[in-house]
Amino acid sequence: MPATSTASDFFQLFVPDNSIQNMVVQTNMYAKKFQERFGPDEGWRPVAAQEIKAFLGFVISTSVHRCESVLSIWSSGFFSNRSMALKMSQTRFEKILKYFHIVAFRPSQGSNQGLYKIQPFLDSLQQSFSCTFRPSQTQVLHEPLIDEDPVFITTCTERELRKRKKRKFSLWVRQCTSTGFICQISVHLKEGQGTDGLAALKNKPQLHSLVAKQLCQNISGKNSIIFTGPSITSLSLFSEFSKQDIYCCGLLSTRKSDCTGLPQSMLVCGSTPAQRGQSHVMMKGSMSLISWYNKGHFRFLTNSYSPTKQGMIIKRKSGEITCPLAVEAFAAHLSYICKYDDKYSKYFIFHKPNKTWQQVFWLSISIAINNAYILYKMSDAYTVKRYSRAQFGERLVRELLDLDDCSPTQ
């Protein structure tokens, strides 16, 4: 990307003009279908591409200003913004919000029926993530923080909690541990009769294994190293991945993990008290099962790090603690992802629609913006003007709304 690239140039790597145009066509089709069924809407006129861009800009602004209601822009309160409000009337915005669609009509057939209204956009997003960025060798599979999750809920007031509805989908990602770039996303409905629903696999150990396989289907043969949490880590999955030249390092839990095929002697705590930093290893072929003690027993399964090589974990209060290299690598890469969540998850779009497909859409837009910012920081454009994540979001909103003074050099 050239040094003159703007925030919207990076955003359009993932949400290009043809995606915007599809939103225009589908929104107008849905409005027509709706009015044919329920009667004409005198205040409606077909939407245009620039209006959809502005519509996206209005909703994205809630991530920058941390405002739950987009309509606050047109109010006289703290979150009001006259320059933005002049770009579109509140009435027009509400009309577009009412009819906004990615897919207006239900397909006659398809395997992902529950997400049919968002699936084409998700497919396009996945493709753009793969085409625009080549991740580092080390990546992690996990569920990113969203504002309905427990960490966020602890900061909510009782009134806000009563307003929130339980999320009906789960989101898993494959994320580069060197940059935080989210390489692939996998969305599953928690309820539903279709194959995209989790009901059929709710109580079965292959659920998270299936998610992991979906997230890693594009990295076969690339010698990637995948870090996984206890719910994904299993001997059968790691063995299957190793046949595809995908190597793994995962934390094990006797409660959350599928421990089939692992020696029970390594999964139970011995009667002799262990010393801090002490570890035991059992190997079979290239697979190692490590039991490491640090105020408790931690077990790791890996085929990507030699169990004989030693590493070090540095604690602020405890100082240096010896550990196998796999343990050091796991802690380092997972801590980076925690920092990513702390930095960027607070910039997720605050607008909370009732429909599940709309929640998934705005969440995926938030991820696309974070990815756009990561690419911006690695480009020559960052040397021209060093925008923070919040400033980048503000510039993107102004450019989508076609407000004046959008040059990155000013």
TrEMBL record:
Residues 6-373 form the PiggyBac transposable element-derived protein domain. One of its GO terms (biological process) is non-replicative DNA transposition. It comes from the Eukaryota. It holds the Pfam family DDE_Tnp_1_7. GO terms for molecular function: transposase activity. GO terms for cellular component: nucleus. This is PiggyBac transposable element-derived protein domain-containing protein. It comes from Mola mola. The lineage of its organism: Eukaryota, Metazoa, Chordata, Craniata, Vertebrata.
